[in-house]
Amino acid sequence: MKKTLTAALLVTLALPLIATAQSAPAPAIKTGDTWTYVSTFEKAPSGWRQTHDEVTVLRATPSHIYYSSKQVGSSQTPSEAIAGADWSRERNVNGADTVVNRPLAFPLSPGKTWNLDYTEQHPNKTFAMQKWSSQYRVVGTESVEVPAGKFQAIKVEAEGDWVAQLEPTQTVTQAVQTQQGDTAMVTHAQKTGAVQVTGRTYKAFWYVPEIGRWVKSVEEYYGSNGVRNERYTNELESFKRSAE
């Protein structure tokens, strides 16, 4: 028989369990587990939007989590996606499924570290190549407050950088020249070779074992000038866990 564990009960349980735990194993994710987040996207210099998104587990296998995602109150069909069993995010890179974000690496214990590196050819119209490198670390436990309540969470931080080669470009200029009564159109083409640009990234995740997912996440992306271009923030509003 399945029971629904309420947010209030889990918050009460989470405080002593996380405070005394030395290592957090992977959660037992089950069909029907649901989390609702308030998601905020900020884009420099003044872009901003906020949505309320519901994530629901459709099924879970030993290696993957199949889930749906939709905006709360939307009449549109939910989108369906796959994550790793550790909630890692995969996508196609250079023709192969590649992990591009691994916020959690179970079991989680204070001081644990792991790296994530990948290189993508022609990721967009601007870059001929882009390489991402991130170093993750379990910082320890930290109190965090979100719309769903106040939690003692396991905090994971990731700092990284990216390096890209710009696609070669060609600039064409035209001018009219008049000499001794004759008029001619002169065209000049100039090619620009590969130029390298770099940037930084910062990510943080506050994970609560009894919730089965993070209660808060922040992802920031910085350009070559050291200025933040984008920030994504997710904060838990409500959740429902199913248990045998």
Which key phrases capture this entry?
single chain, 244 residues, mainly beta, YmcC-like fold, two-stranded antiparallel sheet, elongated, signal
Written overview of the protein:
With 244 residues, the chain is mostly beta strands. The protein has one domain: YmcC-like fold (Beta Barrel), CATH 2.40.360. Helix content is 6%, strand content 66%. It is built from one helix and 15 strands, in the order βαββββββββββββββ. Strands 1, 2, 3, 4, 5, 8, 9, 10, 13, 14 and 15 form an eleven-stranded antiparallel β-sheet that branches. A hairpin with a 2-residue loop joins β9 and β10. It is elongated, with a radius of gyration of 24 Å. The N terminus is likely disordered.
Shape: elongated
CATH class: Mainly Beta
End-to-end CA span: 6 Å
Query: Main β-sheet: number of strands, strand sense, barrel status?
Result: 11 strands, antiparallel
- Compute the number of structural domains: 1
Named at the architecture level, the CATH assignment is Beta Barrel
**Count of DSSP-assigned helices:** 1
Helices and strands, in order, run as EHEEEEEEEEEEEEEE
CATH topology grouping: YmcC-like fold
Strand content: over 45%
Low-confidence stretches are 1-21
Give the fraction of residues assigned to helices.
under 10%
Task: Let me know the average pLDDT.
Answer: 88
What is the gyration radius calculated from CA atoms? Answer: 24 Å
Give the beta-strand count. Answer: 15
